Amino acid sequence: MDREVAIIGGSMTKFGQRDAWIRELLAQAGEACLTDAGVEPDAVDHVYVSNMASGEFEGQTGIMNAVAHDLGLLPAYSQRIDQTSSSGGAGMYAAWQSIKSGASDMTLLVGGEKMTHKGTGGATDIIASITHPAEYKHGVTLPSFAGMTARHYLEKFDAPRDSLAKVAVKNHENGTRNPKAQFQKTITEEKALESPTIADPLRLYDFCPITDGSSALMFCPVEVAEQYTDDYAVVSGVGGATDTHVVHERDDPTTMGGVVDSGEEAYEMAGIGPDDIDVAELHDMFTILEFLQMEGLDFADQGEAWKHAEEGRTAIDGDRPINTSGGLKSKGHPLGASGVAQGYEIYEQLVGEAGERQVDAETGLACNVGGFGNCVITTIMEGR
Amino acid sequence: MSMDAIRCPNGHVKYPTHPRCPECGEEPVETIDLSDRTGEVVTWTESTATPPGVREPNVLAFVEFEVDGAPVRALGQVADNADVETGDEVEPVYAEELREPGVGLKPADADQEWDGFQFRPLD
After folding, report:
1. Which residues from chain B sit within 8 angstroms of residue A246, using beta carbons?
2. Largest CA distance in chain A
3. Which of A128, A151, A334, B91: CA 20 to 30 A from B61?
4. From the CB of residue A101, how many other CB atoms can be counted at a distance below 10 Å?
5. Where is this region: Disordered (chain B) (predicted)?
6. Which of chain A's residues have a Cβ under 8 Å away from the Cβ of B98?
7. Does the structural domain A5-118+212-228 have CATH classification 3.30.1330.130?
């Protein structure tokens, strides 16, 4: 069966510190997505729930069952998708497969995570549990991998430290235009460069916050989409790839192999290249990752992405805006929700619903990174 | 205790050990102890926000060893949080407890060693 896969609606809850627990967050985004798409619950054949660690965070497992029941989707097939920080992207991949294969004619994808009640130390430890035991015993955290990678990048390519601060400033600026973002304030380069050191040379403003939130998207075949709406997006390319579990085993610390491989797969499927991408959401869990993904996806030559940031080319009024949503940096990073929320931002940009953040875009890309580049999903979407 | 790396028939050396060579999928033919060699700091960080049971601050480094011309890297704590720079030569030194067992998410008796090798800069 050769079907084109459409996205006909989406939603996200307010990201930030929320009173709601995981079931309520997922239900809020799921319900809002049904409403936005104009789809009745009984039309949903499959529901995928992207989430990394509800069991570890709040002792609640089986959340795909909860979502299907709470939203009246029974007896739809339900599945929880965990691919750590790229669970949302992996959910996009699963939802796309379900429609493409003909297994489903209407698939709801909901991603979410409830994290803030664990505090920074507790949340950091849960996230660090993805590492290999040979790494974990040294007390390594994802931020410390970012620190080591950033130092190597700056030394190898003679890039100025300020260029990383420019990523944070840009994404905070974009976040002020996103009412759902965790942070609604601009920051200055000076403030970013003077903030407390977290993993030298990276400082507080190089890191995304810990966040509660949920986001959802509705997938169906193009023929079905046209019964619901005139404006929809098509998933024209998707690729997924896995890199080493042990981060130090990679040949080049400044290359994310999963980004390169998943990007190539997505470009090939879509039949386009990096120059055709008008807008992108990249996984800026740490500022340095925006550069590594720009280079891995061939938006910039290796060692050159920092120049794009310096020249303002990635700003919302630049030649290829990156992270118009505010990115993980400003919008927040509720693990399982983030990849879905990236897809939601691209969807909104392509159907002209991005409000104050709207840019002129026909084709968009989302790159969702799990772990420290351990698992990556790249998705390309086109507006119709 | 040893700091075991594997070597596969194609000459790839990897640390830590794996059932198959991550690079070519071949079964390893040899175990190599890195603990009596010296290596070079590839990059490092001083982490000042550490999880429960981990020293704060925590200086960490990627270190590259060479085994018969093949590079192999390892991550480890820097002993006594000593000052290091990229390119410094370091030696592995055994530490009984790298972080407090059972304080974080993993139980003390999990698939997890708590001792291992830190890196000490050579003068």
Report:
1. 16, 75
2. 57
3. A334
4. 10
5. 104-123
6. 137-139
7. no
Report DSSP letters for A283-351, one per residue.
Answer: --SBHHHHHHHHHHTTSS-TTTHHHHHHTTTTSTTSSS-B-TT-HHHHH---HHHHHHHHHHHHHHHHH
State whether A140 and B60 contact (CB < 8 Å): yes
| Token code pair at residue B16 | 């830590």
Looking at the structure of chain B, the number of domains it has is 1
The complex's ipTM works out to: 0.98
A122 vs A8, A46, A372, B49, CA distance in Å?
A: 37, 33, 18, 11
Q: How far apart are the first and last CA of chain B?
A: 25
Chain B residues whose CB is inside 8 A of the A205 CB are none
A107-113 and A46-50 as β-strands: parallel, antiparallel, unpaired? parallel
- Cβ-defined contact of A151 to B43 (cutoff 8 Å): yes
Q: Which residues of A touch B15 (CB under 8 A)?
A: 134, 248-249
Nearest CB to B49; choose among A124, A138, A151: A124
| pLDDT digits (tens), chain A, 384 positions | 579 999 999 999 999 999 999 999 999 999 999 999 999 999 999 999 999 999 999 999 999 999 999 999 999 999 999 999 999 999 999 999 999 999 999 999 999 999 999 999 899 989 999 999 999 999 999 999 999 999 999 999 999 999 999 999 999 999 999 999 999 999 999 999 999 999 999 999 999 999 999 999 999 999 999 999 999 999 999 999 999 999 999 999 999 999 999 999 999 999 999 999 999 999 999 999 999 999 999 999 999 999 999 999 999 999 999 999 999 999 999 999 999 999 999 999 999 999 999 999 999 999 999 999 999 999 999 999
Say yes or no for a CB contact (<8 Å) between B77 and A132: no
CB B51 to CB A124 under 8 A?
A: yes
Residue pairs between chains A and B whose CB atoms are closer than 8 Å: 122
Domain that holds residue B42: 4-121
Q: Is the distance from CB of A21 to CB of A247 less than 8 angstroms?
A: no
Phi and psi at residue A311, to the nearest 5°:
-85, 0
Q: What is the pTM of this model?
A: 0.97
The full set of domain ranges for chain A reads: 5-118+212-228
Asked if A95 contacts A219 with a C-beta cutoff of 8 angstroms, the reply is yes
- Closest-CA distance of chain A to residue B111, Å: 7
**Would you mind telling me the total number of residues written for chain A in this entry?**
384
Interface probe with B: pick from A126, A243, A248, A374, most Cβ of B within 10 Å: A248
A145 to chain B, closest Cα gap in Å: 8
Nearest CA distance, B116 vs chain A (angstrom):
8
Task: For residue A288, give how far its alpha carbon lies from the nearest alpha carbon of chain B (Å).
Answer: 14
